[in-house]
Fold:
Amino acid sequence: MLDVKEAAKIAIDYFNKLYIGSDYESIALEELERKGGFWHITLGYSESGASRIIGGTRSRSYKIFVINAETREVVSMKIRKV
Structure:
């Protein structure tokens, strides 16, 4: 069975593979939750570049990854609104 550290690593690796070559920085684990046989992992990240700076602060975006704890497969990725 998949533990939380492995689930977080799978989510980060999946994000990096999907967005390879994109201009993202400061990827961080923000939230995690186990629901039944699935891990819900929220990652936060910032886009590089001046266009993403709001009020002198770089804005953050968030994605939720749902990972099957048995198969280790990422079954969904959604935008998390804050």
Observations:
- The helical segments are 4-18.
